[in-house]
């Protein structure tokens, strides 16, 4: 008798179990690692995944047989890109603190401009390749998965008329989520990304937060109007606005969850899937396991500044190594720079670490991290308290979340001394409140109705089955900003009130003149 | 090596699989039916459920051996309550349309006042029963499940220091969700419940919607300040505000989903679990199945105005029966009033219907419904287009959702003629767009990451495991309304701008006088 549910599951089997066609526009570095986990999940479910990348990609391993690739030729090389990123990192880590405000602003503008120019080269390589565009059109993809770290994926989806899903951690000041995604973000309790504020702000903080959002709105508006809208219009061959294209996203997959975020309003098509790459630890390589077991009851500390940091200045490396030598734990440090002179016997250097397996090891007492979202989620997953040494981008903000939630101590990379690092490590290892806090976050992370990766895959397949997710898209997209905030309604009501007051005052004056006018003029003439 | 996930699942097993203690403060009628589904789910999962009700409950079957009951003696009877509800219904169905605006407002105030007085009697019966209160305290319940159709459950939870979950469809104008739950509800695209608006409103509609929310805010504020805050203060024995108590709810379980709702902002602790009672159809009783099979290709129409409507006036009953006689389908009508004279042979009357099994029957072509949320969700679940005859409360709004989504035709009970009903039935049965629309909603309903009942049970158990869900509660609760809307920040910025303008103008005047003052005075003296 229950025909419908059976029919619907059959529908699902034919539409998705059979395997659909997914087109991917990925980001780089940690963005790619995160995206790859989703793509692996999709391939496991029988879908065909085609990735568009370019000849200079520093991250996407285009020799994988799991995925199909469309590789765009670009006039710069992987080395050029890496050099640019290294320069950016070096400036952020060492020079920015010494620079003037104006100097820093100019440098950041230069960095953003260079990035945008590289991005545009990739876009042009795609849209000018008529053969490839035609081929992509013929493939009739069912969904596009887009990391907006590189722009243009959204425009491609619109051109191919394929529903699309954005995957991101955030955009600066949440500007794109707010302006293009219509995500409500009350400045009174949703702190701007980049400030060391929590969701509890005093008046001065709320004031700064408000002005920050306003400045980001203006900045995005100006940047998009000058740099991107004309470019999108050129590529599309008709008037096209970037924010308008982005607003068509069916789902926004956000790379965090309520273990990390301060609770805030969301929309039905914003899905929080933080830590989707996390998994149980596997056994360590034999020699590493032996080193770890030799740590005894003191346990080990895992230390990594992420895949982008290859080396440090000798001064910074020595400061760190000397600190690590002063703690009773053994330390496993991912570092491929020159061996620091102060390196103590308790510390071992590795070019690469099985980070997730180490963080899941029962001997692990603390994690020294730059605060990238991926590593931070592995620490949450396995319940390891952190010492944060944030370097750039969202890392200070990420670690601020962990600090205010009581699970981390944060240090300033350019200013910290050995004793600061020793003190921070002793604090997170010996003060039980840090372990308790990270275990609380870990419980929240594990205690979800659905695993984050399963949820991400579910919504991707939902979009494939239903050719979008229009029932989750708010009508705010069709309102102007003043309509959205009811400013036209306010203005109308104010005008009505004004008119009523005007009529009342005028009527009173008229009556007053009628009644007392004559007697007054009589008095005057007397 | 993967110790933590194993530990966490063990933790879950000991904390919840073992069975926890749930205390319930239920509503009546359809509210109770919905709540009972959740409670059955909890009992199936091994939890012990204790329900607090009163001697006059018209809905809660207190002889069930599945649950424990605490039955409060009240000085009125089930008949008194039923009589009151009948009077309310009769006024709403027949007399309100004829009444003046002032008359209707006075009548509604009288109805609300009588309801509040009955509610307060139940509350007093609870809080004055020191023995029961002590017993409840000793039981150390892990969670309380509360339907705010009757108030005081929240105050009990606060008094017993038990985390609690609210389950509701809505409060009028979303006033409690907005004011006490901090649910963001932009009047520009979230239509007020009670208006025939969708999420696409023109200027006049947005204006009325804005004023509606404002009026509901004021009404709730006044009613709570006058009626409930003093009462809560009296019961609690210390200054207590209703909205403040309600705001402590860990989870708000909302009895709808995005198949029904227009997409709108939500908060992390608002979970949409509409249709949690829906399930596949079971075979019909033999004689009913035979009647249904005799309908041939034309199929059947299922007709129910809900459990609260026992009979109609003969005039209305005849109008309806005559219409039903004019369609080729067979009709199964839940009706226990006097048999209408115009009843045709294609229509059979029943005191009670296996409604879910009928709606899930492949022969069913349409559903004539009053538009209660439960029946409406069964129609969505099974994909049956509707003819709505809304009677009172949220029913017009519910059916408006279905109408605007293309899955129903709605009629005015007091004004409709036979031909209107015939036309409506023919439309939803023969115009394929209605079936397509309801099938679209049905797909959305079935295509969720988790079944609604499982999600409801998950969050109840989550609160039990974690003694609340504080990580989902926004800090907006700790802000005043002007702080929330940044009005203090605006005022400050305006003051700064005003001051700057004042200083500039004064400085200019001063300079002007300094420069030209002398020459001007010279000219004057000349």
UniProtKB/TrEMBL annotation, chains A, B:
SUPFAM superfamilies: UDP-Glycosyltransferase/glycogen phosphorylase (SSF53756). The chain crosses the membrane at residues 489-512. GO terms for cellular component: membrane. It catalyses: glucuronate acceptor + UDP-alpha-D-glucuronate = acceptor beta-D-glucuronoside + UDP + H(+). Its EC number is 2.4.1.17. Residues 1-19 form the signal peptide. It is a single-pass membrane protein. This is UDP-glucuronosyltransferase.
